[in-house]
Design brief:
single chain; alpha/beta; Dihydrofolate Reductase, subunit A; 10-stranded mixed sheet
């Protein structure tokens, strides 16, 4: 992988770029880093899955970023669509799933084979029977009353000792996190593909306070894919 910015480097170790130690913890909450992939024409999925537009280098970076994180945050629909496997303690951090309804399959291998116990982030108004079932297979975090409050979810994860939260989407969750003002960093892979159609973007739906400013920190490239690292513009 070569670095194009800030300085050209013919062969760079990705973690030397992404584990740069420049993530000062925001006051009262962990740092939130989102990792997403999009096609050259802005599609976030192909046939309903982000994996369809990923590249080998993107998948490698996906796992490297997981090793930097203290916890992975993901929406329940993404867990289902991307066929998430169980959290492996020796390979990376626990996975926290955001679900207000808790309409999940408790017998799925995501729960039954997890070595790092999953976390379920939900709302106080969730069905009591589902809350009880969730507590059997995961740690339950209440973050909001009728719906999950993104800021409160991040704060609660911080109270559990997690300093770096890696958000893997999908687009709805990332929009909510950005709108709540808790997205600090975006790692975006631009895949050298044109997809067309009606695929969602990495953000979908209204975004309060748009546009949100980003500062480009670094650009890497491999086999035509660009790896862009942004931090949210201060102020």
């Amino acid at each position: 992988m070569r670095q194009l910015m800030p300085d050209p480097v013919a062969d760079v170790e990705p973690l030397a770029v992404y584990d740069a130690g420049d993530r000062p913890p925001p006051e009262g909450r962990p740092w939130v880093l989102a990792n997403m992939v999009a096609s050259a024409d802005g599609a976030a999925t192909l046939e309903g899955r982000a994996g369809g537009i990923s590249t080998a280098a993107d998948r490698d970076l996906f796992h490297r970023l997981r090793r930097l994180a203290d916890v992975i945050l993901v929406g329940a629909s993404t867990v289902r669509a991307e066929r998430y496997g169980p959290a492996r303690g020796e390979d990376g951090p626990p996975i926290a799933v955001v679900s207000a309804s808790l309409a999940l399959d408790w017998g799925a291998r995501f729960f039954t084979e997890a070595r790092a116990r999953p976390i379920l982030v939900t709302a106080a108004a969730a069905d009591p029977d589902r809350l009880a079932a969730a507590a059997e297979v995961a740690d339950v975090v209440i973050a909001g009353q009728e719906r999950v409050d993104p800021r409160l979810a991040v704060v609660e994860l911080g109270r559990r000792g997690h300093a770096l939260v890696l958000c893997e989407g999908g687009p709805t969750l990332l929009t909510e996190m950005t709108g709540a003002g808790v997205l600090d960093e975006l790692c975006l892979t631009v895949s050298p593909l044109l997809v067309g159609g009606q695929s969602p973007r990495i953000l979908t739906g209204p975004l309060p306070g748009a546009p949100v400013g980003l500062d480009l920190v670094s650009v890497l490239e491999e086999e035509g894919a660009l790896f862009l690292r942004y931090v949210r513009t201060a102020g």
